[in-house]
């Protein structure tokens, strides 16, 4: 393949990666931004999204599209409910103490992952794509479903942006993020906002996973890589900054494909993790985000 | 008593964004005196003593302590030099015993003479606690004591540092009248071994204790003089009445 | 008053060590080996506790220090003929050096950022080991050669395949660690560490160089953890990348939390209990890490002081 088409393919793959990563990282960023909770179990909500998608899809034997679109609704709802419950049962009781909640979410990571291993098993299982359509470009054919994922992610992003900046709910969330005590004094039910935000963050990860599961497969360990990448994105983008998160996710997603052409994946991970740790030490407000309050 | 200058600032300034919290302050304090620093809220008093203690860095100007330039010296080293700071908001170790709170100070003071025995630390700590009248509370957990006692503990921690300059940031805030009287006696006693710089709102306390009063307003020195002079100073009255 | 307290503390710790010494005469083979491992892991957790329990710094990457000792010692024993004792020393030095470097960088952060930064450095260490798989054999690991199992040291013949010797070497290292930590935390340094944990700004304004003290605590902690790693690799003749994984970092946290953070004997107790809990669970299911998850959540929710921390609070205030 010539360089031009190759670059186009790499860009498309990068965009796909970036789309899924943006949604996942946005969930992590939202939870950290509003609640100041670092959710180490975030990747497991992603994994659950994929596993429930497989479960729902395999119950609907008819056309794959029926199973898929039902899964796109049902799976995030189940995941959101699980996140909601764990927020009520665990995080709330810890009073959202930053250090205790990290320890607790590490525990949740193991509980969710190992329970999935017990029930769903150690195998990777595929979910059929809702449709197969190859877009024939002059140089190569490209899966129409991949483009659908990119578009769907953009739609979700716009929806999240709309909710956050144009609705009363978003205003309440921003007020809570800005100053918890004052928001409470103005009668905002902080606890309900927190539970909602935690569930919404998990649902974003679950939606990302349902979108990607026809391309990758559902596996009980699939949450670890998105977790690490989301951390990288959120730190580079500036903790709690949504705009920074999107920019960083695009950058990481797009560069990921290109970096792994030149370096071994391990070396790429090594260097990027090290760089991100150094960013957190020396430039904690992130590279793209506004300075944290 | 020779009047040796203990600490001197030249053109000391600190800005926060556009706000000049402390602006071009030339200030000197003699060894052995009790100096009160007064001024309306937001006059820059706490910022000023934070600059002296090294908790924040100045934007411009210099600080001299016993003839040495300490402008760039980190806070913990200034404490070892002999500048002790007690916090405006009580800052003790609530989970540790009263004794351990003060023993930490004593241990810090003894960093200057390495290899000090635990017994020496204990003796110094007990001495400081006796000074403030808390020696019967050694084993109590500091956080369980009343607010007034916690303030006394804070002073004992300052004392056990064996400072040359003890900075007290609003020490009588929240104390009862009886406690305040007791406190004034304590400060008089401390001033025999250390120079005291006192930020205080309670004017009777200031008038009773201070040898000299410095008035800060809008980050600048408005007036300086004996309590009688300051009481009679029209500009000071205007500043207090004007900005409340 | 304090003298009798000191005697009581020493008596307690000697009694614990004596019990560990005596129990070797009744343990069946399987538990004999298991307890040897537990004692080495307890040293690792005790090192972790120096930082987490006493200084209040929660690291999520301590496996890198364990791995520094493990690989520093193991690679030396595998690739060179410097001898096992020297390899052990090199392992410890690797840990000391690594913890110094990590401390100089990571201690510029506090709280949550410190946790994430240490986790990421730990991950980098793990990836480094797998990247140099030509030398380390990655997850598969390296088994020590015969020359590292049987050797002469100061005229004595040492046979590390001998279970009795291994048990008592582990016990000796545990005893040394226990008393070093006891002396440190009951001395002036320990008092400052606890002060930093309780109120860092105040400690700075009492004239203590808190950064240097924290760095000191991290280096002591990392070095002890590295010693555990070096001992582990040499005693059990195997080094592998999984010892550097994040899960190993979390185990140190879990052992310490269970036994009681900020108590000298807590990590030992936590290591024994948790090791057996995981061991028993893994007989029944492949998902034995579920135990780890449940234990973490329950501890942080209902039992944040751990076993000995709670005992100290309720009944034995003199417990160090």
TrEMBL record, chain A:
<feature type="transmembrane region" description="Helical">
    <location>
        <begin position="102"/>
        <end position="122"/>
    </location>
</feature>
<dbReference type="GO" id="GO:0006865">
    <property type="term" value="P:amino acid transport"/>
</dbReference>
<keyword id="KW-1003">Cell membrane</keyword>
<dbReference type="GO" id="GO:0022857">
    <property type="term" value="F:transmembrane transporter activity"/>
</dbReference>
<keyword id="KW-0472">Membrane</keyword>
<feature type="transmembrane region" description="Helical">
    <location>
        <begin position="45"/>
        <end position="62"/>
    </location>
</feature>
<dbReference type="Pfam" id="PF02653">
    <property type="entry name" value="BPD_transp_2"/>
</dbReference>
<keyword id="KW-0029">Amino-acid transport</keyword>
<dbReference type="GO" id="GO:0005886">
    <property type="term" value="C:plasma membrane"/>
</dbReference>
<dbReference type="InterPro" id="IPR052157">
    <property type="entry name" value="BCAA_transport_permease"/>
</dbReference>
<keyword id="KW-0813">Transport</keyword>
<protein>
    <submittedName>
        <fullName>Amino acid/amide ABC transporter membrane protein 1 (HAAT family)</fullName>
    </submittedName>
</protein>
<feature type="transmembrane region" description="Helical">
    <location>
        <begin position="15"/>
        <end position="38"/>
    </location>
</feature>
<keyword id="KW-1133">Transmembrane helix</keyword>
<comment type="similarity">
    <text>Belongs to the binding-protein-dependent transport system permease family. LivHM subfamily.</text>
</comment>
Automatic annotation (TrEMBL), chain B:
<dbReference type="InterPro" id="IPR003439">
    <property type="entry name" value="ABC_transporter-like_ATP-bd"/>
</dbReference>
<dbReference type="InterPro" id="IPR003593">
    <property type="entry name" value="AAA+_ATPase"/>
</dbReference>
<dbReference type="GO" id="GO:0016887">
    <property type="term" value="F:ATP hydrolysis activity"/>
</dbReference>
<dbReference type="GO" id="GO:0005524">
    <property type="term" value="F:ATP binding"/>
</dbReference>
<dbReference type="InterPro" id="IPR051120">
    <property type="entry name" value="ABC_AA/LPS_Transport"/>
</dbReference>
<keyword id="KW-0547">Nucleotide-binding</keyword>
<protein>
    <submittedName>
        <fullName>Amino acid/amide ABC transporter ATP-binding protein 1 (HAAT family)</fullName>
    </submittedName>
</protein>
<dbReference type="Pfam" id="PF12399">
    <property type="entry name" value="BCA_ABC_TP_C"/>
</dbReference>
<dbReference type="InterPro" id="IPR032823">
    <property type="entry name" value="BCA_ABC_TP_C"/>
</dbReference>
<dbReference type="GO" id="GO:0005886">
    <property type="term" value="C:plasma membrane"/>
</dbReference>
<keyword id="KW-0067">ATP-binding</keyword>
<feature type="domain" description="ABC transporter">
    <location>
        <begin position="7"/>
        <end position="243"/>
    </location>
</feature>
<keyword id="KW-0813">Transport</keyword>
<dbReference type="InterPro" id="IPR027417">
    <property type="entry name" value="P-loop_NTPase"/>
</dbReference>
<dbReference type="Pfam" id="PF00005">
    <property type="entry name" value="ABC_tran"/>
</dbReference>
Automatic annotation (TrEMBL), chain C:
<feature type="transmembrane region" description="Helical">
    <location>
        <begin position="86"/>
        <end position="105"/>
    </location>
</feature>
<feature type="transmembrane region" description="Helical">
    <location>
        <begin position="112"/>
        <end position="132"/>
    </location>
</feature>
<dbReference type="GO" id="GO:0015658">
    <property type="term" value="F:branched-chain amino acid transmembrane transporter activity"/>
</dbReference>
<keyword id="KW-1133">Transmembrane helix</keyword>
<feature type="transmembrane region" description="Helical">
    <location>
        <begin position="32"/>
        <end position="51"/>
    </location>
</feature>
<protein>
    <submittedName>
        <fullName>Amino acid/amide ABC transporter membrane protein 2 (HAAT family)</fullName>
    </submittedName>
</protein>
<feature type="transmembrane region" description="Helical">
    <location>
        <begin position="7"/>
        <end position="26"/>
    </location>
</feature>
<feature type="transmembrane region" description="Helical">
    <location>
        <begin position="288"/>
        <end position="311"/>
    </location>
</feature>
<feature type="transmembrane region" description="Helical">
    <location>
        <begin position="169"/>
        <end position="194"/>
    </location>
</feature>
<dbReference type="InterPro" id="IPR043428">
    <property type="entry name" value="LivM-like"/>
</dbReference>
<keyword id="KW-1003">Cell membrane</keyword>
<dbReference type="Pfam" id="PF02653">
    <property type="entry name" value="BPD_transp_2"/>
</dbReference>
<keyword id="KW-0472">Membrane</keyword>
<feature type="transmembrane region" description="Helical">
    <location>
        <begin position="215"/>
        <end position="240"/>
    </location>
</feature>
<feature type="transmembrane region" description="Helical">
    <location>
        <begin position="63"/>
        <end position="80"/>
    </location>
</feature>
């Amino acid at each position: 393949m010539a360089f031009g088409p190759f670059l186009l393919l790499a860009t498309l793959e990068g965009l796909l990666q970036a789309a899924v990563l943006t949604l996942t990282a946005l969930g992590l960023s939202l939870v950290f931004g509003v609640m100041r909770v670092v959710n180490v179990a975030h990747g497991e909500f992603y994994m659950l999204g994929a596993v429930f998608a497989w479960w729902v899809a395999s119950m609907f034997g008819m056309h794959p599209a029926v199973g898929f679109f039902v899964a796109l609704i049902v799976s995030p709802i189940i995941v959101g409910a699980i996140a909601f419950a764990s927020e009520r049962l665990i995080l709330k009781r810890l009073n959202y103490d930053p250090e205790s909640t990290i320890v607790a979410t590490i525990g949740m990571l193991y509980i969710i992952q190992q329970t999935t291993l017990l029930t769903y098993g150690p195998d990777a299982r595929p979910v059929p794509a809702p449709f197969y359509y190859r877009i024939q470009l002059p140089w190569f054919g490209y899966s129409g479903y991949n483009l659908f994922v990119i578009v769907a992610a953009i739609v979700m992003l716009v929806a999240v942006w709309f909710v956050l900046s144009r609705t009363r709910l978003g205003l309440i969330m921003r007020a809570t993020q800005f100053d918890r005590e004052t928001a409470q004094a103005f009668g905002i039910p902080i606890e309900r906002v927190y539970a909602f935000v935690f569930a919404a963050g998990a649902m974003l990860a679950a939606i990302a996973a349902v979108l990607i599961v026809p391309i990758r497969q559902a596996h009980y360990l699939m949450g670890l890589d998105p977790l690490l990448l989301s951390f990288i994105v959120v730190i580079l983008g500036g903790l709690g900054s949504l705009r920074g998160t999107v920019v960083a996710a695009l950058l990481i997603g797009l560069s990921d494909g290109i970096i792994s052409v030149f370096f071994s994946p391990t070396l790429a991970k090594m260097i990027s993790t090290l760089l991100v740790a150094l960013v957190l030490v020396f430039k904690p407000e992130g590279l793209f985000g506004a300075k944290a309050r | 008593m020779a009047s040796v200058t203990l600490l001197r600032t030249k053109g000391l300034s600190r800005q926060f964004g556009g706000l000049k919290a402390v602006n071009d302050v030339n200030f000197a304090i003699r060894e052995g005196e009790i100096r009160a620093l007064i001024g309306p809220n937001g006059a820059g008093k706490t910022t000023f003593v934070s600059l002296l203690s090294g908790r924040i860095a100045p934007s411009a100007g210099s600080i001299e302590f016993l003839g040495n330039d300490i402008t760039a010296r980190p806070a913990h080293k200034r404490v070892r030099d002999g500048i002790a700071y007690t916090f405006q908001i009580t800052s003790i170790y609530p989970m540790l015993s009263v004794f351990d709170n003060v023993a930490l100070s004593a241990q810090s003071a003894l960093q200057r003479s390495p290899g000090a025995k635990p017994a020496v630390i204990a003796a110094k700590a007990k001495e400081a606690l006796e000074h403030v009248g808390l020696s019967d509370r050694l084993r109590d957990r500091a956080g369980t004591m009343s607010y007034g006692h916690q303030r006394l503990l804070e002073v004992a921690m300052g004392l056990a540092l064996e400072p040359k300059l003890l900075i007290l940031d609003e020490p009588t805030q929240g104390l009862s009248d009886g406690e305040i009287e007791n406190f004034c006696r304590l400060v008089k006693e401390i001033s025999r071994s250390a120079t005291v710089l006192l930020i205080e709102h309670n004017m009777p306390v200031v008038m009773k204790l201070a040898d000299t009063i410095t008035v800060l307003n809008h980050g600048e020195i408005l007036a300086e003089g004996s309590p009688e002079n300051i009481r009679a100073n029209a500009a000071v009255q205007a500043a207090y009445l004007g900005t409340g | 008053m304090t003298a009798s307290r000191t005697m009581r503390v020493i008596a307690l710790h000697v009694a614990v060590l004596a019990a560990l010494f005596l129990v070797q005469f009744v343990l069946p083979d399987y538990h004999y080996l298991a307890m040897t491992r537990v004692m080495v892991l307890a040293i690792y957790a005790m090192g972790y506790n120096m930082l987490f329990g006493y200084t209040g710094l929660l690291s999520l990457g301590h496996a890198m220090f364990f791995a520094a000792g493990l690989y520093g010692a193991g690679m030396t024993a595998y690739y060179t003929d410097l001898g096992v004792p020297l390899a052990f020393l090199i392992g410890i030095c690797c840990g000391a050096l690594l913890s110094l470097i990590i401390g100089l960088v990571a201690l510029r952060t506090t709280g949550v950022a410190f946790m994430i930064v240490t986790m990421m450095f730990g991950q980098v260490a793990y990836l480094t080991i797998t990247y140099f798989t030509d030398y380390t054999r990655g997850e598969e690991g390296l088994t020590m050669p015969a020359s590292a199992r049987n050797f002469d040291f100061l005229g004595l013949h040492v046979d590390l395949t001998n279970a009795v010797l291994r048990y008592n070497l582990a016990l000796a290292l545990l005893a040394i660690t226990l008393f070093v930590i006891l002396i440190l935390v009951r001395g002036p340094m320990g008092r400052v560490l606890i002060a930093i944990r309780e109120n860092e700004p105040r400690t700075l304004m009492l004239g203590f160089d808190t950064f240097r003290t924290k760095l000191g605590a991290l280096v002591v902690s990392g070095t002890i953890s590295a010693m555990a790693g070096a001992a582990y690799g040499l005693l059990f003749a195997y080094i592998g990348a999984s010892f550097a994984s994040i899960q190993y970092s979390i185990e140190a946290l879990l052992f310490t939390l269970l036994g009681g953070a900020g108590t000298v004997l807590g990590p030992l107790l936590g290591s024994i209990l948790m090791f057996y809990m995981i061991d028993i669970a893994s007989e029944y299911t492949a998902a034995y890490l579920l135990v780890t998850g449940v234990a973490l959540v329950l501890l942080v929710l209902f039992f944040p002081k751990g076993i000995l921390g709670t005992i100290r609070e309720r009944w034995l205030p003199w417990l160090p």
